[in-house]
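Review form for a predicted model. The reviewer records the input and the model, then writes brief findings.
Reviewer: anonymous (R2)
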Amino acid sequence: MDETADARLKRLSMRSWRRGTKEMDLVLGPWSDVHLAGLGPDDLETYELLLAENDQDLMAWILGQGEAPAAIAPLLGRVASHAKDRLTRRG
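Model under review:
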């Protein structure tokens, strides 16, 4: 049975909020709440690739301590910008 679009979004949202580390929960969860439903098919595929990455690698890439794979780098940059904006509004 094929996954419905709504079920896919719910699954991706859950995976965004239930990572291996709380830090990545707090980066990916809020981003997914705001942006996930508006992603097109290609970006959804890329987000699936992003979610398959290790939390420690994702955090290093977000913090600029390494270079993300080209396939996910643009989307990860959008995620990182959203996280930075959230932090600067709170400060």
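Findings: The mean pLDDT is 94.
Further findings: The radius of gyration is 13 Å.
Recommendation: see findings above.
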